[in-house]
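Annex B, item 7. Sequence and structure tokens for protein A, then protein B.
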Amino acid sequence: MAQTLTLDQLALQLAGVTSTSDARAVVNRASRIAGVPDNRALNAFELLKVCQALTAEGGVIQQMAESIATSALE
């Protein structure tokens, strides 16, 4: 589990498939649902919790979240 990201980095990755403002909004919502801090890099468990919350968005956001979670587990 080598990959850790900040919420800003996660939003930047999602901005590849949606607008920057929408990416930030879904990441903020998912981080609140997951109950993770927003001021530091997330550990692998926290990142997986945020990705799990992101999957509720469906569509390409869900696909990206699943891809990010898979990468975090490698």
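Protein B:
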Amino acid sequence: MLNYIALLIPLFLGLIALEWWYSRKRNDSKYSLPNTALNMAVGAIDQFGALLYLLLLYLAMVFSKAHFQWLTLPNDWRQWILAFLVVDFVSYWYHRCSHQINLLWAGHVTHHSSSYFNLSNGFRTSPFQGLFRIPFWMIMPVFGFDPLVLVITFKVVGLHDFFVHTPYIPKLGWLEWFIVTPSHHRVHHGKNEIYIDKNYGSVLILWDRMFGTYQEETEPVEYGITAKYDDHSPIHAITFHFKVLFMQIRKTKGMLNKWRILLMPPGWGVGYLGEGMAEKKHEIGLVNGAIRYAFWLLATGVIGFIGILFTHSILPTFTVGYCFFIAVGNIVQSALILNQSVSKEFGFWESLRLLGFGLFGYFLLDSMPIFGFVILGFILVSSIWFGSVKSQFFVQKPQFS
């Protein structure tokens, strides 16, 4: 499955680049470089987490099937069709619960917090969303579904989700009655009053029509969340609502009410405390050298990520894990730079990160010389480049009178 993901990532990146080019040609401001970099950083963190939560999901479903299986299904094409329908049905209810239960919303809000809507939003998924999904998916093996069939179906269904994150595909006629289209999903991401908590479907829009959560796109969509939110850090994007919940629990009296905050809809109790939750941004500016270094980190991170997905089967587990960590680190660092969210300690921590990865490459020279030389080559170029532009990260922003 990792090999398929490795093939799909370049396809998705190519489509994002094409949509970005189209946006620039139209001059319609549907893309922002910092926002896109942050979406990719969040996606890299999620894919890194997926190495764990997909395994946990599979093991949880195996446990559920072994101990609680109630029905037996034929092990042929009929199970695959049923699996698609059931996975899509459970996805609808999990998605709906993620908007109505505070704790689940904390894992899902990352996907909604962007004020932009484009294909890069398909990468913007918190790893907590994958973890919180596990109890819902454990129900399906009880009815006889093979866990492997469910995991594969889940990943295939997830492909559709990427393609509906586009502002450019109009309504699709009669298809609007049956499948989730970009128009439906634009509504779902809207914070317009008539659009909030609508169109939860994953592939089929039929569930929304059946259970009263369908809304047609009737007015221009305003994207994002109703809480005050500053989109500048991938870690902040992932942890934002958890911080809100922590503040609410601290301010709420009574142990029962504290627990209810986790289970009630967002905003229940002492009020929504999203105000002031954004991290303070440093008043710095970046010059072209720093931005080019960010692009270098982004490019090498993505290439490294794809390369590890292709070569994981011939590498030791520790090597795979460490290289994934570094590749994700490259992408996250690029997002921090492009969003101007670096601190005065950035130079120290980036130097330490490069040193740690360089030592790892050096120790690989005996056992995997080619792999070690590739890492050391990257570290050499990065170190020289970073050393030449380090002072360009902290240029004071000009003051205008």
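Comment on protein B: The beta strands are 284-285, 395-396.
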